Structures are given as C-alpha cells and as structure tokens.
UniProtKB/TrEMBL annotation:
Family of this protein: Belongs to the prolyl-tRNA editing family. YbaK/EbsC subfamily.
InterPro entries, per the entry: Prolyl-tRNA_editing_YbaK/EbsC, YbaK/aa-tRNA-synt-asso_dom_sf, YbaK/aa-tRNA-synth-assoc-dom
Pfam families cross-referenced by the UniProt entry: tRNA_edit
Biological classification of the source: Bacteria, Pseudomonadati, Pseudomonadota, Betaproteobacteria, Burkholderiales
CDD domains: YbaK_deacylase
Gene3D superfamilies: YbaK/aminoacyl-tRNA synthetase-associated domain (3.90.960.10)
Name of the molecule in the record: Cys-tRNA(Pro)/Cys-tRNA(Cys) deacylase
GO molecular function: aminoacyl-tRNA deacylase activity; lyase activity
Enzyme Commission identifier(s): 4.2.-.-
Domain YbaK/aminoacyl-tRNA synthetase-associated: 38-146
GO biological process per UniProt: translation
Keywords noted in UniProt: Lyase, Protein biosynthesis
Length: 164
C-alpha cells in the first residue's frame, strides 16, 4: 500500500515533491467566481490564511505573481511603489493563463509556464501554514509560508486592502 496517496498531480505538486516539500491536499467543490472566500468557507479555514494567486503585469506588460490574503484586495498603487514599477494591473484572464499555464481559478504560484517574480503579502508569512492553489480548480494545498520564499524567491510587500 503506497503511503503517498495523492489527490491530484499537477505541475505544482510535481515541483513540490521533487523539492521534498511537505504539503497537505484539500479538495473542495469549485464554484465559479467563488474564489478564496468560497474555498476557505468549504474547508473551514480562515480566509486570511488562504493565499490567492494573482497574475498581474507592470506598465511594460511584464507579468508578476502576487500572493494575497483571500479576504483582501491588492492596492496596485502600493504594490507598484514597493516593487519599483510605474503601475501594476491585473492581467486579462487569457493573458494570465498564457503566463501561468494554469486555468484562472486554478492558478498556483508553483511551476508557472513563464518564470515571473513573486510578491507575497508580508503578513501571510506570519502564519505557520497557508493554503494556496495546488494547480487546478477545486484544489488547495497547505504548506509552510517559508516555502514560497525558499522555492519561488517570493519577496514581501505590504499591499493588502480589506475587501468592502
């Protein structure tokens, strides 16, 4: 009996396994436009601990990844200022998909098609465990937030805005 029964095999989980990263797997019922709030509700976890993976771009069209609390928005003004860009905006869904290689709603920061700089909301790093997309819709993984720093070189920013 294999003790490593994996729920889903995605480029993200393959990368984590190759790097011997321990992670939990948390499938849930995907709901269109439900986002991190819906997954956190179904899994019974604090939306502050769920990191949504956002693909954005700067004024030159250079893509970047932002990991943000599930119950917050990104202040693109604050983000741009902190990363030295003139402006930052979310990518169109088709563009985000092209950069990441993942379907919108199933975007993981791990094993993206294009190598992109990763920015993480600083307060996410305070949790012992965070939940983020494992590379497909309806599938979160849980891991130590230090993994995004070690494996992705994620740099902390303070760009969270509470959702209204």
């Amino acid at each position: 009996m294999a003790k490593d029964k994996h729920i889903s095999e995605t480029p993200a989980t393959q990368l984590l396994r190759r790097n011997k990263v321990e992670f939990g797997e948390h499938p849930y019922e995907y709901v269109d436009h439900g986002g991190a709030m819906e997954s956190s509700r179904q899994l019974g976890v604090d939306p502050q601990q769920v990191a949504k993976t956002l693909i954005m771009e700067d004024e030159n069209g250079q893509p970047l990844v932002v990991l943000m609390h599930g119950d917050c928005e990104v202040s693109t003004k604050n983000l741009a200022r902190q990363i030295g860009a003139k402006k930052v905006a979310p990518c169109a869904p088709a563009t985000a998909q092209r950069h990441s290689g993942y379907m919108v709603g199933g975007t993981s920061p791990f094993a993206t098609r294009k190598k992109m700089p990763v920015w993480v909301e600083e307060s996410l790093l305070d949790y012992p465990v965070i939940y983020l997309n494992g590379g497909r819709r309806g599938y979160l993984i849980s891991l130590a937030p230090s993994v995004v720093v070690q494996l992705l070189g994620a740099r902390p920013v303070q760009a969270a805005l509470p959702k209204h």
